[in-house]
Design a protein that fits this description.
By secondary structure, the chain is of the alpha/beta class. It contains nine helices and five strands; from the N terminus they run E-H-E-H-H-H-H-E-H-E-H-H-E-H. The structure holds 2'-deoxycytidine-5'-monophosphate (DC).
């Protein structure tokens, strides 16, 4: 039985960075579930299709290769926006659900646990997770962080970086779409703890996140059957 930390939150709130750091701290595997939806969107775009064509998105979701999660093209603003659109299609969500549950139950590398970040991890994918966080930050702060991230990735991926106002507007549209979809909308699970990182740098946010999950994770690890 693996121990799961579920981390949900708004776009560009820093949940991916926190999830990676928590995974490293506990020696757990990490899954960025947003990358799965980004893979679906990238496949549709790369095939020259339109994300408005539901059947193309559903086919792409059924055929995705999770090994492609490190493709730098996944990080573009265009693919992020398209990922939010395809993620509202119930059949797309159904197609990637089992992969996430399998990852949670049997993390790669025989890890004792998994940290999964996304929008519906604490509510739908792993409702029994040992610890749940809901991360948020003010839109202005999130836009700045996303802008910096896109700047850093600019050259290798050959992307154009939108200005910060455009990024903020895009994040708000994306949050609204993610919160209002009918299936597995973005929301804080009843037993998730809210962490606002607006005034925290990465190290301070990590220290707070760790303090919030540590005893729950240790209790769950201690309760695992031996052998
Ligand atoms: O976390 P991200 O920006 O990489 O996610 C891209 C989009 O994927 C996001 O706007 C909504 C969707 N998503 C989702 O619906 N459910 C998840 N668990 C993760 C991401």
């Amino acid at each position: 039985m693996s121990v799961v930390i579920a981390i949900d939150g708004t776009s560009a709130c820093g949940k991916g960075t926190l999830a990676r750091k928590l995974a490293r701290h506990f020696g757990f595997a990490h899954l960025d579930s947003g990358a799965l939806y980004r893979l679906v969107a990238l496949r549709v775009i790369a095939d020259g299709s339109s994300i408005a064509r539901r059947e193309d998105a559903i086919r792409a979701a059924r055929e995705i290769d999770p090994l492609g999660v490190n493709d730098p093209r996944l990080r573009s603003a265009e693919v992020g926006e398209a990922a939010s659109v395809v993620a509202a299609i119930p059949e797309v969500r159904a197609a990637v659900l089992q992969f996430q549950r399998d990852f949670a139950a049997h993390p790669p590398g025989d890890a004792r646990g998994a940290v999964i970040d996304g929008r519906d991890i604490g509510t739908v994918i792993c409702p029994d997770a040992a610890a749940k966080l809901f991360i948020d930050a003010e839109p202005r702060v999130r836009a700045m962080r996303r802008w910096l991230e896109l700047q850093q990735r600019h050259d290798p991926a050959g992307l154009t970086v939108p200005n910060m106002k455009m990024i903020e507007a895009d994040l708000l549209v994306r949050d609204q779409r993610d919160r209002s979809r009918a299936v597995a909308p973005l929301r804080q699970a009843a037993d998730a703890v809210l962490l606002d990182t607006s005034d925290l740098d990465i190290e301070a946010a990590f220290a707070k996140a760790l303090a919030l999950v540590k005893s729950k994770v240790e209790t769950a690890l201690a309760a695992r059957p031996r052998g």
